[in-house]
């Protein structure tokens, strides 16, 4: 089974605009036929292994803006998802963190979350607060809100 890493952005831009930014910052290239208004496919060389990162930029389909207080997730309010895949899976987390760090460096004014399998919050960047890397597993779900609340911008 393939593993997914995601970077969620609190950004009011279209997926195509974000993909253009990634091309410039990360040196990615557009995949042939990998573009429509809702999702854009890209690829680029991995930094630490001989392989290709497959990257998709689209809307956050997991976002639930009308959640009840006990259902709030850290990824709510982050409308853009950058999905990252690489085989072998063992190096994917390391590669995703490098991508996250480059994006934070390039646009420190944008709140970002690095999430493993859409469940575990690995890192969060919040402008004016900084970047937090979580050493112990922290879920994006409401029961762990006290662990991530100072690092995540949640509306409401």
What does this structure look like?
This protein is α+β, with helices and mostly antiparallel strands and 156 residues long. The protein has a single domain (5-148), classed as TATA-Binding Protein, CATH 3.30.310. Helices cover 20% and strands 31% of the residues. It has 3 helices and 8 strands, in the order βαββββαβββα. The protein has helices at residues 15-26, 92-106, 145-148; strands at 5-9, 29-35, 39-45, 52-59, 80-85, 112-116, 120-126, 130-133. Strands 2-3-4-5-1-6-7-8 form an 8-stranded antiparallel beta sheet, with helices on one face. β3 (39-45) and β4 (52-59) form a beta hairpin. The longest helix is centred in the middle third of the chain and has 15 residues, at 92-106. It is globular.
> Class, according to the CATH hierarchy?
Alpha Beta
Measured as a percent range, the helix fraction is 10-25%
Domain tally:
1
CATH architecture: 2-Layer Sandwich
Write down how many β-strands occur, each being a DSSP E stretch of 2 or more residues: 8
Major sheet details: 8 strands, antiparallel
Shape: globular
Low-confidence spans: pLDDT under 50, at least 5 residues?
none
Q: Using only CA atoms, what is the Rg?
A: 15 Å
Q: Report the span from N to C terminus.
A: 36 Å
CATH topology: TATA-Binding Protein
Instruction: Briefly note the structural class of the backbone.
Output: alpha+beta
